Amino acid sequence: MTTASSDKPVPTARRPGRPTGSARGPEQRARLLDAALTLFAREGIVDTTLGAIAREAGFTPAMVHYYFKTRDQLLDVLIEERFLPLRAAIGGAFEANPDDPVAAITQLARAMVAVAVEHPWFPPLWVREVISEGGLLRQRMHERFGHAHHDASLARIEQWQKEGRVNAELEPSLVFLTLLGLTILPLATSKMWRNDPARRSLTPDDIARHAVALLVHGLRPERDTR
User: Fold this and answer.
1) What is the average pLDDT score of the chain?
2) Residue boundaries of the structural domains of the chain
3) Cα distances (Å, whole numbers) of residue 83 to 59, 87, 97, 122, 145
4) CATH architecture of the domain covering 79-217
5) Spatial CB neighbours of 202, under 8 Å, sequence gap ≥ 6
6) Measured between alpha carbons, how far is 215 from 136 in angstroms, rounded to an integer?
7) CATH superfamily of 18-69
8) pLDDT tens-digit profile of 115-151?
9) pLDDT beyond 90 at 81
10) By CB atoms within 10 Å of each CB, which of 4, 36, 90, 97 scores lowest?
11) How confident is the model at residue 222 (pLDDT cuts 50, 70, 90)?
């Protein structure tokens, strides 16, 4: 005779590494991406394995491989889902202010600082993987986006110079790099000067203000029109 318990459906065995629950899937995937960004910023992309990302996120290696078969696949996803929105947030300043270079530089500096504050991994990762020689992220970003946006920015600065809106002595190809050095670099090294009495009280707004003042006015006092 069949017992009541025999009528109960037999639960399906869970596949190894597969996320449990439809709601948890996206959360686990996002957590893996966050862990990858943290390790890439701290250790570098080349020296970070999928196993290390699993440990950082508190998951098994099987869980990582369920979502990302290789590190290259994970990096492509990061570029598409994490860096593309940041690029959109930072870009557009020159297009929004075609006739006002000061407003464009101000907007760009503030956007860079805002992105860096919201995403603490961004400054150290940018220094390690984008502006350093041999950075893997820079290579992949160029493959993904090309140079069109950068070339358009240079053309805009050159046009401003021809119109007399920007100092003709400036080197257009160095303006963006200079702005990065004035914003991202201080934020990337902020842990080093937390105990420095001269700089430990600086805020992100102070960094953005300083960057704009230095680029727009240089060392000359604002009231000095010589």
Assistant:
1) 85
2) 18-69, 79-217
3) 24, 6, 23, 9, 11
4) Orthogonal Bundle (1.10)
5) 186
6) 30
7) Homeodomain-like (1.10.10.60)
8) 999 999 999 999 889 888 778 888 888 888 888 888 9
9) yes
10) 4
11) low
